[in-house]
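Box 3.1 A note on notation
Throughout this textbook, protein chains are presented in two layers. The first layer is the amino acid sequence; the second is a token string describing backbone geometry. Keep the layers aligned when reading.
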Amino acid sequence: MVRFVAHSDGKVLVPDEAVDIPAGKRFMVTLEAVDAGRRKRKPAPGWVAKALELSRRMPADLPDDLAEQHDHYIHGTPKR
């Protein structure tokens, strides 16, 4: 199932964002009106935005046990 928000130009429905829909297929379409405020994303609180930014900058090759052994990797203490 594909869900997307669209608007009407009076004759056709126009998706608000690009949607990957196979050409040549028939679809059952059900319309549900949404208010304009529901479509807009609320800005993330500052700490969430900062955490997301930091997670994008993390290297992909971190050790699997980093959470459990962070003192070892950060401070050089023996592993527990």
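Helices lie at 36-39, 46-57, 70-75. The chain has one domain: 1-56.
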